[in-house]
């Protein structure tokens, strides 16, 4: 099932929920203290917003803070560590085990074996967002990014999507470029305006889109249909593949149409952000 993240079903799409303020100071900074309250810090790498420490991270999870990813020290043990892991599983949050040296490089604070990277944006629930668009009488056009890993490509795609009036961008919760300060800068701030859905299962996203009547268009050089022949006046979910491997076979099988861009030169592929821009502006041309 798709994760529930945006529970304000009455809000119009493209409306971000206000972030709660987490500015409570640490009560006790002694080594090994497990009763400290959390506050967001800026990490040493790429100015990431971080929450560190067992109880602070659990507080962040319980309060609904938007967490981009969790880094947990390998072989972390103890009752509090088990409680934390249970909360991570219950909230279905992306996490990975890392050596303690990595955590030490990220923060100078007493991390107690866990660091949470706080997302600078609020993620939306795909099904709820799609429902609001349909209820408002819109004709949805959604962009699904299948493991786009380059931050600059992600930022450039979202910038174009916002300019073209795309309703939402969907990314996987694993294996996608991190939405950080660099991505926001590359997008010229569009990531702060464009609704972004981060979902665990992209196949489920496609099935939900089909239930709402969206055609699934895969942008691929292996396609048999010229992109100008696709009717983008219909409700559409457009899939763009990763920079190196393209669209995964599982998603490609679910596409209603496989569309390609004409290539006349010897280089047989376009940068994914350029290709996405061409498709999105063809949609805009048709709908105008």
Q: What would you say this structure looks like, in words?
A:
38% of the residues are buried. It is built from nine helices and twelve strands. The protein folds into two domains: 41-118, 2-Layer Sandwich (60s Ribosomal Protein L30, Chain: A), CATH 3.30.1330.30; 126-287, Alpha/beta knot, CATH 3.40.1280.10. The strands form two sheets. It has a seven-stranded parallel β-sheet, with helices on both faces. A five-stranded mixed β-sheet has the order 1-2-5-3-4. Helices cover 31% and strands 18% of the residues. The longest helix has 16 residues, at 272-287. The model is unreliable at 1-40 and 42-46 (pLDDT under 50). It has helices at 54-62, 79-91, 100-106, 126-135, 151-164, 181-186, 202-211, 249-252, 272-287, and strands at 41-42, 49-52, 67-73, 95-98, 114-118, 141-145, 168-172, 196-199, 215-219, 225-226, 236-240, 257-260. The chain is elongated. Helix 1 packs parallel to helix 2 (79-91) and helix 5 runs parallel beside helix 9. The chain is an alpha/beta fold.
């Amino acid at each position: 099932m798709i994760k529930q993240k945006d529970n304000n079903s009455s809000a119009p799409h493209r409306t971000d929920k206000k972030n709660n303020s987490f500015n409570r100071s640490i009560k006790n900074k002694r080594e090994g203290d497990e009763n400290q309250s959390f506050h967001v810090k800026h990490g040493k790498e790429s100015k990431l917003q971080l929450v560190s420490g067992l109880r602070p991270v659990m507080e962040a999870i319980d309060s609904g803070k938007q967490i981009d990813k969790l880094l947990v020290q390998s072989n972390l043990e103890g009752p509090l560590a088990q409680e934390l892991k249970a909360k991570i599983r219950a909230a279905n949050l992306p996490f990975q085990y890392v050596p303690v040296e990595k955590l030490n490089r990220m923060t100078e604070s007493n991390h107690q074996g866990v660091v949470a990277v706080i997302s600078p944006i609020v993620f939306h629930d795909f099904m709820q967002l799609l429902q609001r668009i349909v209820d408002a009488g819109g004709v949805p056009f959604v962009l699904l990014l299948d493991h786009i890993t380059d931050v600059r490509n992600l930022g450039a795609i979202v910038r174009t999507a916002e300019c073209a009036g795309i309703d939402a961008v969907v990314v996987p919760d694993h294996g996608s470029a991190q939405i950080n300060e660099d991505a926001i800068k590359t997008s010229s701030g569009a990531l702060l305006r464009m609704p972004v859905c981060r979902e665990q299962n992209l196949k489920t996203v496609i099935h939900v889109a089909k239930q709402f009547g969206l055609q699934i268009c895969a942008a691929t050089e292996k396609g048999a249909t010229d992109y100008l022949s696709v009717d983008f006046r219909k409700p559409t979910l457009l899939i763009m593949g990763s920079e190196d491997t393209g669209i995964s076979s599982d998603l490609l099988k679910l596409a209603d149409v496989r569309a390609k861009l004409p290539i006349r030169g010897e280089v047989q592929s376009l940068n994914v952000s350029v290709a996405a821009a061409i498709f999105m502006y063809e949609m805009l041309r048709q709908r105008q």
